[in-house]
Amino acid sequence: MPANLSPDYQAAEQRYRNAETYEEKIEALREMLATIPKHKGTEKLQADIKRRLSKVQQEQEQRRRSGGRRHDPSHVPREGAGQIALIGPPNAGKSALLAALTHARPDVADYPFTTHAPQPGMMPYEDVQVQLVDTPPLAHEPFDSLLINVARNADAVLLLLDPTDPEGLEHAAMLPRFLARCRIVPEGRPVPEELGLAARVMPVLLAMNKCEEDPDGEVEALLREPAGEDLPFLRVSAATGDGLDHLRETLFGVLRVLRVYAKEPGKAPDTSRPFVVPEGATVLDLARIIHKDFAENFRFARLWGSAKFDGQPVERDHALVDRDVVEIHM
Ligand SMILES: Nc1nc2c(ncn2[C@@H]2O[C@H](COP(=O)(O)OP(=O)(O)OP(=O)(O)O)[C@@H](O)[C@H]2O)c(=O)[nH]1
Ligand SMILES: [Mg+2]
After folding, report:
1. CB of 134 within 8 A of CB of 115?
2. β-sheet bridge partners, residue 313
3. What topology is assigned to 257-329 in CATH?
4. CA of 160 to the centre of ligand 2 (A)
5. What is residue 4's predicted lDDT score, i.e. its pLDDT?
6. For ligand 1, atom 8, which residue shows the shortest CA distance?
7. For residue 119, what are the contacts with CB-CB under 8 A and spacing of at least 6?
8. Domain spans, the chain
9. 82 closest CA partner among 214, 216, 259, 234
10. What is the H or E stretch that residue 185 is in?
11. How many other C-beta atoms can be found within 10 angstroms of the C-beta atom of residue 20?
């Protein structure tokens, strides 16, 4: 083994050896790739890691297809318009927020380390649902690989601050270190070159829960600085409901998805259940989601909503707008 491997690399390799799930193996191998010194002496090793990575990914895919499942607590199957991980220090009110925003009923208690496993809940927002994932507390380093996996697998991360936390400053300062450990780069920040493909660029928001405990914003000013002053910030309270409407709207907004309604010729659109597509999606992308026959035999579509006139015929590459109604013709 080349002698000049960094401590980060060696730690990742250790994790790879101890990994029990495909997700952990993949995370560790990616980390090894990201931290291995790039020079002639490590080329063989780099190629070997890439081979192992692609093998594990294939095995994971096979398992997914065969439906055979080994229980992996860090994998929360995605549902709804997108998945947002709630991450924060012990007792910050992650579970209380999940309970306030969704129909889930997690344990909420006035002592730390109440939550032991990720728990999802669906947050209704207008006519769609956003999946929130409550997590065990972020309290010490090295960070739990389960938390790292949940954060990396999500579409966005909501980091929590707690103005009543006696260790608030230390916990706030841990948040950027956690993101760095996850190789998550908050949207809007430059991607450090050394991260390369390992970088996970995603929306990261900061919220201070229990905001009624800091009416003048004194603690807020102290905590935001170490946590990341440039991050979008919200004041919320699971207890009083303050800021929750704004939070719902913001969480849906960062997912950057569009709601589109399908319509059959001669019938009214089905407005009860929108299709959710990423911003920038085209009429053909929608056709693919509805049914592969629609995509394969696509001739043209008619559009209501953002159309110049109701029922305007559009081509397959026409970009959709939120709340468009689409009628596909084959
Ligand atoms: N004053 C106030 N208390 C809150 C608020 N939200 C939660 N709490 C209280 O804070 C304590 C911790 O809440 P939890 O939801 O269990 O916190 P958690 O972040 O899930 O804690 P762990 O699972 O241990 O990480 C409970 O006593 C809650 O009642 C809030 O907005 N204001
Ligand atoms: Mg909890």
Report:
1. yes
2. 302
3. Ubiquitin-like (UB roll) (3.10.20)
4. 12
5. 79
6. 93
7. 95, 98, 104, 106, 133, 134
8. 7-66, 83-254, 257-329
9. 259
10. strand 184-186
11. 10
What's residue 63's pLDDT? 78
Ligand 1 pocket at CB < 6 A: 88, 90-96, 108-110, 112-115, 137, 209-210, 213, 237-239
Ligand 1 atom nearest residue 89's Cα? 25
Choose the residue to mutate in 86, 95, 140 for probing ligand 1, maximizing ligand atoms within 8 Å of C-beta.
95
For residue 71, the model assigns a pLDDT of 67
Q: What integer is the mean pLDDT of 61-74? A: 72
- The helix or strand, by DSSP H or E, that contains position 132, with its residue range, turns out to be strand 128-134
Residue pair 19/28 in contact (Cβ under 8 Å)? The answer is: yes
**Ligand index nearest the alpha carbon of residue 207:** 1
Domain 83-254 classification at class level = alpha beta
If one residue of 87, 105, 108, 171 were mutated to test the ligand 1 pocket, choosing by the most ligand atoms within 8 A of its CB, it would be 108
pLDDT tens column, 264-277:
999 998 888 899 99
